Amino acid sequence: MDRIPPKQIAKKIIKILKKEHPDYHYLKKVFEHIRIGLELKGKTPATGKLPELLTKQELIRFYDTVWNTADRTHIIMMKVLLYTGIRNAELTNITLKDVNLNASTIRITGKGNKDRYIPYPELFRGELAQYIENQKVRKAKYLFETNRQDKYTTRWVRAIVKKYAKKAGIEKRIYPHLFRHQLLTYLARQGIIDNKVQLISGHKNRKNLAIYQELSLADVSKEYQEAMKDFPIK
Length: 234
Description:
By secondary structure, this protein is mainly alpha-helical. It folds into two domains: 7-37, no CATH class; 56-228, hpI Integrase, Chain A. It has ten helices and three strands. A three-stranded antiparallel beta sheet has the order 1-2-3. β1 (99-100) and β2 (105-109) form a beta hairpin.
């Protein structure tokens, strides 16, 4: 079937619409009625859905596998991911100066180079402090560097997570971003409200947090610290 080229059709529509001085919403309605008139059915918008999370037992099994390898860098790395819910790229960009041991917070530079301060469990402070001292002795700049003092890449981090998941015998797909969902879901179940979880997660708006349930929190640090006391990984 021969059709008039889309560009030509567009020119005809433009000629008609120019007289109406349309704005975005007017055009949206026009094309909505066109779709209805032509009985066109588009794809149903995807609904926010969480990936398959790890059970408490699986999470403990995964971490125990990491712990038993005795690789201090990997142990700290997995704990930071699990405790903070930060993105993979954010993890690899943490410098030693970003960690505030006194306040138990880490400065994270997220999307659009926007900084935010996220808490980590106070019980983790001593272990993290010892690790940072070792990194300073090595004259490291970043929190996580290889033996050659190269900055970890997001690809390396994904490979590390995948390796331990396989070693732990977990068949579910496990990747760094899954731990973000894992933590935010955990905090949701602990009763922390969304406008405060938003500060921890770095989400731009509440709609992006809808899949973690409707939540609220009066004091981020205080409630977070309390909630993390029952977190499966110590």
